[in-house]
Amino acid sequence: MKLVLIGAPAAGKGTQAARLVEHYGIAHISTGDMLREEVAKGTELGNEAKSIMAAGGLVSDELIIAIVQERIKKDDCAKGFILDGFPRTVVQAEKLEEMVKLDHVVYISAPDEVMLERLTARESCPKCGAIYNKLSLPAKVAGICDKCGEGLTQRKDDTPEAGKKRIQTFHDQSEPLVDYYGKKGILFEVDGTQAIDDITKAIIAGLDK
Ligand code: AMP
Predict the structure, then answer these.
(1) How far is 52 from 42, CA to CA, in rounded Å?
(2) DSSP letter (8 states) at residue 100
(3) What global pTM score does this model have?
(4) In this predicted model, what pLDDT tens digit does every residue of 114-137 receive, in sequence order?
């Protein structure tokens, strides 16, 4: 199964991707996570992406396409994958189409206010990558990862200022993908304001149809 998840920041792409990966036994490709790893390692690529990410913009199509092109060749993608955060522009979608034939594109939609509220309450585990939310999915012990006990951190771009910019970037550059994939007949939309379990159920029902 080759799947794309589209949605504005904090729509729930990462949370749903983690669940779907487990359900279908396919690879999770988060371009945001891959870029954050490069930033943490201080690579040339990471240094190039760092300020763009912190300001809520998009790194260049060329750069991100090259990363994805390499990633999907890896063995763990043989059974399929979920692309979480890619494509984010129509240019990226067109390139992706040259690389693979997608089965489905899931669009997790929610109003801007909901996403902004969630985004500033989001926490994640720097060790195992688990995602939490102080409002909707709190850790059992505040600030500590349920899964591995590591202290939770907040993403540098999950501030109200960067968050607003990222939501605007989504509207300007990524929302046209809804129309793009809609016309290809492979898109289905899920209401991202529902409870997390209900969103997962709705996605699986849509994919297994
Ligand atoms: P995410 O974790 O998906 O919210 O991504 C974090 C940041 O990484 C985004 O705000 C962008 O700056 C950058 N990024 C991730 N994926 C892409 C992409 N497909 N195209 C351009 N920039 C991206």
Answers:
(1) 15
(2) -
(3) 0.93
(4) 999 999 999 999 899 899 999 889
